[in-house]
Fold each of these.
Amino acid sequence: MSGIHLVNESMSVPVSWYLMLSVALFAIGTAGALTRRNGISIFLSIEVMLNAANLALVAYSRQLDQRTGQILVFFVLAVAAAEAAVGLALFIAVYRQRRTIDINRINLMRH
Amino acid sequence: MQAIDYLWLIPALPLAGAAVNGVLAYRQAPKPAVTAVALGAPLASLLVAAACIWQYLAGGLYPRAVEQVSYAWTPGTVDGLHINVAFLLDPLAVVMLFIVTFVGFLIHVYSVGYMGHDEGYARYFAYLNLFMAAMLTLVLGNNYLVMFFGWEGVGLCSYLLIGFYYDQEFPPYAGKKAFIVNRIGDCAFLIGMFALVARFGTLDFMPIFHRLATEPRLGMASYAGGLSFAAFVGLCFFIGAIGKSAQIPLYVWLPDAMAGPTPVSALIHAATMVTAGVYMAVRSNVIYQLTPGVSLFVAIIGTATALLAATIGMAQNDIKKVLAYSTVSQLGYMFMAVGVGAYHAALFHVLTHAFFKALLFLGSGSVIHAMGGEQDMQKMGGLKKHLPVTYRTFVVGSLALAGIPVFAGFFSKDEILAAAAASGMPLHWLFWGVGWITAGLTAFYMFRAVYLTFDGTFRGTHEQEHHLHESPPVMTVPLIILAVGAVVAGWIEIPLLHGTQWFHRFLESVVATLPAIGAIQGGAPTGTRELGTPTEAILIVLSVGLALAGILLARSIYGGAGGAERGLAFEERYPALHRLLANKWYVDELYDAIVVRPLHGLSWVFYRVVDVLLVDGSIRAGAAVTRATGDLGSLTTTGNVRNYALYFFLGVLVLFWWIAR
């Protein structure tokens, strides 16, 4: 059982650091998603945001000594993969139609 | 089978005719079918009426009042107020029924010829039958509400038929004018009915008249505005009659009503509808007997109308306008008779006038027909050799109107003048005097029209002269029948033929003087004195003499070749007077200035300020606010995904703040 507790509690990185990193990643991802014009870049930004959330989940999972958070991360990864597949397919379709994936120029939802 | 049980059929048959022809008007039905319905309905009505009158007179019912309840309109639900659709046959109704069905049917026959080429043939007869139904309801109704129903019905038909040529500009305007002017009188009529309901709880003629006759104090009790009850109701009803029967100050619609087809003028605006006011006043004679003040007012209005309209008639060049003002003038005579209490004389004049005025209008229609629509007498002349039947019948009608002995108008007009002279009213010699002068004017303007139209040389275009022709028999036969009536209708009142004045006695059960009145008033100011045969003879000689003088004067000015030119020169000699009369005393202009324009101004204010500014404005303001909010909101709808993502992000932030708060 000793192999399991390799990390000394006193020497381990505090959970607040993980959370700060998670918040930083999430902010970076949000900024990227809101400011980038290239559709692929927005996707990448959203992936960063998702992984920020994953990081927070894993950190809490460990802090609270529960596995639920880690399980949830698998779900998030799966959904992110599916989203990436669908999103890329959409962008390819849009590109074929309009020869661009600059979302400033994809504004058909205007009234 | 009792004919009299089917009294309701008399108005119902023309109503059915109107319905059928109303449908046929939309179906392009063949003309003979339309004609069959148009003539069949009034003929059937005439036959039923004849059977009813025959049974009434010969079946021992005379002089009672026979009532037939057809339908309980309000079966005692409204405060115990009982209104029935019920019909009444009494001597007064018999006379009116005879006039309306008989003259009405003749005018229907005439119309077949006159309107033969008109596109609106079926529509015309639908209206005309509807008019018959309404007029018969009016004269047969046994209470004021049924009477009022007919009263409004004839007003509606009058409006429809005045505006019959709706594609021209003037007729619809004249129709509206007639309708609106009549509304003023109808409003007062309604108020009078309300007063009766409030006092008696019924509108039936017989109970009301019976109670007023047996308890005259009920009518003389002070009611409103310093008037007695009878005076209040009598005044309200008279204002109604002023509108319907074209008296001062509401007569202005009748001359304009000549815009309708000429047979309509004969039927509605001469023989029947306009006499409805006289009929109503005679029907309500119990009320008028109780109020000498209002009776005096009626006599003054009637006398003034008779004179005013006769003066206007002297200067008109439109043949139908002359007849229209003549009608107004004769209606004035009738109200003079009502005012002085000679109700039988008023109704007698209604009867004779129906014949000779219908005859004159139909004669003028025959002339207009021959002239291709021309109505200006200055462009006629010399028509007697082209239209011999029309000429002879027209002269008969004119002699009757002028009051020349043997002809009908003489008897009725003279009876009115004698009654005016014999009445105990204040001003009664003035009434006689004005009536006497008006009789002279009547003879003058009527024969001015006769000479201008039929005598001298033709002054129209060559083309018109080429087309001059006598009207077909379908038009001339009614003329001849009416001409016979215009002669003999007056004979029923010759004392020598019947020992006493037959017509007067015939109506006695309706118009008898109330016995209680003399006792209450002490000396009966409305009572009549005996004039004595020498005085009566002198009055007759005077009025006939003046009428003959009028005819001779018209002959000397307008008769023979060059009469029209002499006439124009004669009228030029009194330019101010002629202008005044030709412009109808500027009464229309006066009303325009004091009523129509202020009303237009007021409605302009209501339109611009109240409607456009306040009503529309408030709704527009609401719409503008909504639109502005929407425009503002739509600024967020950029179509740019990143903006939407930002909103989403901000929304999430707000949500978190909300949860963490």
Amino acid sequence: MATLTITHLSTGYHHREVLHRVSLEVRAGEVVVLVGPNGAGKSTLIRAASGVVPATSGSVRFDGVDLLRLSPIERARQVAVVPQAVNLPEAFTVSEIVLMGRTPYLGWLGRESEADREAALAAMERTCTTELAPRRIGELSGGEQQRVLVARALAQSAPVLLMDEPTAHLDLKHQVVILSLVRDLAHKEGLTVLAALHDLNLAAQFADRAALLVNGELRALGAPADVFTPAHLAPAYGLPVNVIPHPTHGTPLILPDGVERKDISGIRGT
Amino acid sequence: MSISRSPAPSPVRAAREQEQGTSVRLSPLAASTDDDLFRPHRRAGVLLAVCLFTLLLSTLLAVVIGSVRIPPLAVGRLLLARPLGLSVADLPDTFATILFEIRLPRVALMAFTGAALAAAGATYQGLFRNPLADPYLVGVASGAGLGATFVIAFGLSATPFGLMAVPLGAFLGGVLTVALVVMMARVGRSTPVTTMLLAGVAVGAFASAITTFWMLRSPEGVSRAFRWLLGGYAGGGWASVWIVLPYLILGLIGVQINARALNVLQLGEEQARQLGIHVDRLKLVLVAAATLMTASAVAFGGLIGFVGLVAPHVLRMIGGPDYRQLIPLSAVGGAAFLIFADLVARTVFAPQELPVGVITALIGAPFFVVLLRRLKRSVF
């Protein structure tokens, strides 16, 4: 089985290193969720792995191929990214946005073929967005927009799916819809999924494995039950936490304790 | 959540149509076959036909109307006389001269200038993902103006290769401006759009100031350059038309073959890159192409505002945001609009001519506002 292998990856912005030699593996058919406090480097890791932030060292390989050395087109055939649904070009229709996922397969004249339209249509069916196809993306709710972005990523027909906080602006139901959809795609279609999430409880419920990132370093990696423990989370987030089993799933439920006012200034990271 | 792709209207769609009444029927997508899902801007074909018809009509009006009126029939006969070998001996000799030596080259120049400004405007709006962007806001037009003024004021335009030097000077001026703007706006590895537009405004104002200063300092160049600056017709006849045409064509091709990439760029540079677009290369090609078009417009058309801003927006409101359609639509629409504006400019107070820029703003602004009010949704 093909594997996404991140090895000693370091990167940063303006001479400030944000990510320090992070190593991580995601197997095909598996959902690995990146968690960690704000500013820990979750988004940076996703952006570096998708080639939009240059790595200062390390490699990102899939099936043995170093993704960071590929051209943008070749990389886009291997890795699709689901960003947060913000600042979308409102006047484009859903079908146009999904068809943009076919960009890495078009010739230099940029004409979409029947095969491209079929791929887009299939992607819309898998995300239940066919009904939305003729509508302008700006008219849709946040949850619908996010599903459209998943459809666009699926239209890209890439074996690796990276997600950057795909549930950040969604309500409870749509968070669960998106994550169930993605977990299904991984388990049933063999997609390799690496998703940055800030919600620990959602992460614990949907991750096959979780990676805890703090200060740009990997602090814990493993099954949710092993990563989401007070011993890992309390120092990472700088506050006492309780972890109890989820009443129906048995997955960890993370409940933060309160913080004394005098301690607030001592909490790092914003 | 159910998905329905049956050819018959789904219950959900039917319910939505009932709820939204006419707005759905107005939408270009009423049926629900697979084909329709991917052709949401079907009106673009109709719109292009309308634009072409308007272009033809404004051209006809512009060659007919003037101090000497040439009847449409006479225009038709004169145009066909040479290829068909018809006799036009019964028409006054002046008709042929006025038509072929004065009006047609002027119409052609206005058409090319309007097409260039509108297509360049559409390109800049897409490139900067900012509805305010046009050749002037970005500073390119002012820079091109300075380049052209330099050539005209130094009398280079009077040398044998003179006329060719004008658009070349305008292009170099435009390129230098863009380079300066990008350099000023660069933060580390990226060039934030807002900073770039602000830098464009500043550099543009600076270039305009130098242009004005220069013209006031060189009396012999003043009248020529001033007439040009006001958007007046430089009077190069067919020569200036043929000289600017390659710039326009090269620029249009450059943008059109990248029009789909420009669509993808509307998602933002980062997402465009993740979708396989070579963003830096794309931006370079688009800037070069738009600058070529701006230079071709400014070289003999002078500084004509508003066309580059309004024409693309009006067509975007009606035809949708797809740049593959918007670029050719803007070119044709901009051409028709400027021919018409020029016709008005030279006839309302004849024999005195108004600067064509006055007319583009007088007609364009109210029209634009009416459209904005009627379509209260984002079109960008």
Amino acid sequence: MKRLKLKKILFGKELSDGLVFKIIIYVLLIAIGFVYLYPILYMVSSSFKSAADIVNPMVNWIPTNFYLENYRRSLKVLNYGPTLTLSLLVTLLPALLQTAVTSLIGYGFAKYQFRGKKLWMMLVLSTFIVPVQVYMIPRYVMFNQFKLLESSLAVILPALCGQGVNSAIFILVFYQFFRMIPQAYNEAAELDGAGPYQIFFRIAVPLAVPAYITCFLFGFVWYWNETYLLSLFLPNYPNLQLQLANFVSAYSSLYGEHLMKINEGIRLAATLLIILPMLIVYLIMQKWFVEGVEKTGITGE
Amino acid sequence: MNKKKISKNTRNNLIAYSFIGIWIFGFMLFMAFPLISSLVYSLSDVVIRGTGIELKLSGFKNFIAIFKIEEGFIFLEALTDFLVELLFQLPIIIVFSVIIAVLLNQPLKGRAFFRSVFFLPVIISSGPVINELISQGAGGTNILNSYGFISIIEANLNPALAKPLITLFSEIIIVFWFSGVQILIILAGLQKIDRSVYEAAGVDGAGPWEKFWKITLPSLSNLIFVNIIYTVVLLATFSENKVIVLIRSNMIKVGYGIASAMAWIYFLVILAVLGILALLFMPRERKRKKRFGS
């Protein structure tokens, strides 16, 4: 009898209820999770190591003392405060515009049957797979002609026209979301004499707040991490990501090559400073990121 | 009566276009026009003058040049390297995302925490950051080196196979990092599977292993296909991808014409890859439906 009970606790009625099974899952998740986070943990640990700690094979994860000089230098080389502000300008603004505009577009596709709908829908989807490289050279020439190079408009204008970073995904998300709103709402509002734009702003937008938040957050993150077009159209713009790419040479021009040699502690401190704003956003808003993917139907049926 | 119907229809069309009009405008200006221009560039001698750009159609000269000049060879080599890497990385990412999603779908305490952990890299993976992590050895080299893993590969395999394997393992964690969105997509799919199907299978004596292959995996086939496409596009447009870095540096080095030709070759290769993957993995639901219907 006792043995049977023990067996039930360990292995459960079904295998997946049992204690053994649960422990295996936890061990797997923790082990894989550790490896997965290894680069970040390594980065945090190294960023607090002095030059002596880095070469010392006895010092593994925990530095001998709480060493902040790496951060002090990185902040100076990156010119952190002003650069952060400028980076946010070319990140937040296009993300906001893109969210607003793609919601309009998604709503148009979701709520109306019109001539050419299938064609345009196909084209929206196809823009997702066209690599930037194919159209960036003519865009560069065009921006050059209109004197838009080195201007943040080069990033903002495409976003304003629903051609920003991954805009196609956002159009699709809003399309899915607005389609779920029952058509009866629209019809009732129409009977009350509301125009199509009134219906959009008064009924659709308030219902779609979760989709707006999720799309804005993803736009924000994707613009923050986008460096390819930015470095082409705004090569001299002091963006944090681009400053990181040039960190080694910027460091040696500020501190000289020999006196205080650059080491991985300093480089990883700088890297951590670049991702810090996003880490903070993620810490506060993680629910919106993670559940957003499920709820807004990014999964695309 | 008839007249009113038509006018209502037209009105409907107009309103619809007022919503999506800005996209069509943007598409023409920032996508269609540049795409066509880039095709023209790739088929022309492009000369940059102070006043603007001068084009002279030259047929496939630029494309042929890629097979003749040194920059072209470097480009083609980077392209084949990318395809080989894709061949290794794509299955790893797809399988990894399914495994993690199945683990996360178990009723556990701390599920939300683990879910956030596995999504975290999506937030921070920019080109320069990933570059910095790999160059400091945090991408996997550190762990694997400490077990002598890489020297084992080097000693035992022939160089043609060892090279891509070593590159793969030296950034294996970063490869896993590309699966953040895909994990959540699969997870969302898992939660939609009807519990009662599992129960019924359990009554019929199916174990967890059988349930996974017979129930879970088939109902995920749609989402796995979505993931495959997403992953290929993600890897192909990642800003530190050597091919696209080369295309950009060649804009100045060998001119807009040849760089555009490279971009088109790249685009066509990606399209071919996507096409092959679609043929292999596109869910055959429609066919099945038809068969049952008739």
Amino acid sequence: MSAVAPAPAPNVGFRSRVADFSSRHRSLSVIIGMVIVATVLLIIVLLPPFNSFSGQAVWMDGFTIAGIFVLLALGLNIVVGMSGLLDLGYAAFFAIGAYTYAFAASSFTHIDVPFWPMILIGAGIAAIFGILLGAPTLRLRGDYLAIVTLGFGEIVPIAIENSSKYTEGPNGIGGISPPSILGTPFPTTGNPWPFYITMLLLIIVSMIVIYRLQDSRLGRAWAAIREDELAAAANGVNTIVTKLLAFALGASTAGLAGVFIAAKLQTVTPNLFRFDVSFTVLAMVVLGGMGNVWGVAVGAFVIFMIQSVFLKQLNLFFDNVQIPIISDINFLDYQFLLYGIALVAMMLLRPEGLFPSRRRSRELHSDEDQAFGELGDELGASPE
Amino acid sequence: MATTTVPETQPSFIDTFQRLRLGPYLFVLAVAIIDYFIIGPAQFVNGLTIGAIYALVAIGYTMVYGIIELINFAHGDVFMVGAFTSMYVLTNVLGQDGPIDEPAVLAVVLFVDFAVTMLLLGILGTAIERFAYRPLRHAPRLAPLITAIGVSFILQNVIQILFGPSPVNTPQLISPTAHVNVLGLEVGVVNIFTIVVAVSLMIALQLFVSRTRIGRAMRSTAMDRDAAQLMGVDINRTIAITFFIGSALAGAAGVVQGLYFGNIQFTLGFQAGLKAFTAAVLGGIGNITGAALGGFIIGFVEVTAGALGVFVWGQAAVFVVLILTLLFRPAGLLGQQLGERA
């Protein structure tokens, strides 16, 4: 590397100060950032045109559900974005988390374990399933993992649906207890604040943990495996354990989201966890920018909002204006067509996603020599 | 004792057996025979028929994987598009809506249907390769996998928009009630037709790959793309031809699927693709004969699950087969042991 990069200019502008602050105090900036986002969202929906769609409470409910998808995308990002393993059955772990809570706290089993420890238990059980599934397949080439997880994602809802004796089959388990604090259960209708705040806390904790993991020895091992598995193994990374950990941690995030959705909806049915959930979350991760925590979170939020609000509003809009052909189109039917086109276009034109992680985007444009140099600098300079 | 000579011994029976590599074939045969006694002759024929369809789809997976090491997730949906193309050709172009009794007419209609569907599907496959996979040939492995999923979404959604989300009836040109007596067993004509079509296409493919110039180009590209290029093989053309053949076979499978089951749905490709992929892995991915054997085994597994009254678990059984294969024989029945390549 003959061209030595010039010494970084002293941080002057506001932007660079923010960037500097956020790289020094990541956890703090995650907390501040998420609180700002959560507050701003609540203010935005009071402004036109959003206030005409629905009231603030309904919006908050929607944001809470969107938060579940943000959690899912954050978890899948560990597997797909950070470690480069393609998991196509991610919804299975989501289902496992949800049914774990449904078994532990519902009128169906007459057990009532509180919500808060179940978050960890649900995440743990999903992680165990992740390890059980990953152990036979992670030794093999990456593509096998994709297909096995695809099969697993198919099987779990089928298994739930067909073991009516234990899971109430397609009707699902109802009467799940909502979380409670000091003996007061969360209101299931009306006041959306408790669930909203809980979701916010879950996302903040997950993001902090994921950022810490990414900067840890394990996170660098994930990046190494993603970039070149053979080279990583040759440099002493235990590839199987590392991949299993990625898989288990990703699964546990889905389990967490599952416990939350069971508590939020008070009912779980196998149809909530079909493969379209897996693919939607994958689209969120890819479009948001694989490997970038904030990018993936934004991607998840944007896609969820597009499919749950924007397409519906588009339908309503064209129904009202009565343009002959377009009014007949139900835009929700085109959701997967749009995903498909977006996935293909994204891979061809901008494989690093809308909000790429810096390292990831350099990998994908590795033919640029300068990028190689920078990559070497960064890897060499990163403290142990 | 200046020179040591290897003692000439009669090759033992086990040596000969191992050299002939008959093990996998005997295994499949054993599975078939045992299954015959479990599920009875009628279901056995059914299993063979479904297996033949899976085998045709599995060949497409295995050929593409063999040549560019990509799991073509869109392949199951290509099969589904084949079924719909055939339905469209039969009903809207040829104006058929039911069984044809006249053998000559039947033969002509079937021939036109197969020819048109296979040609169109081959073009579709080549187009998918050209636009979704070729630009990413040197990209990280994850990239073409994701475009494959995208293509799969696009195909499913387009068919759903064109033909609606509910199952669509297809004309069953060969009357499902027509039977012939084979070795004292009543066998449906459509079953025999399906099996004969599938097996002859497989034999034709095997001959094509092993005997022709293009087939040799395909094998050499699969073995080492760079070296093949240095030897003057046009890589792009060879890969395009591979996609053409694989997709045309999936189209043929789609035609027989429609003829055999009489109704098709846009979600057909997803599950069939998963099963056919399992068949390809079971047979040894990259190996055409293996894919055919795997297809028949998967057919047996599914039909057996149905015959034992646990049809809903058939999908799960196929998946268990996949996991067991990956655990105990990741190279598949006929595959070479591949090292792990990231």
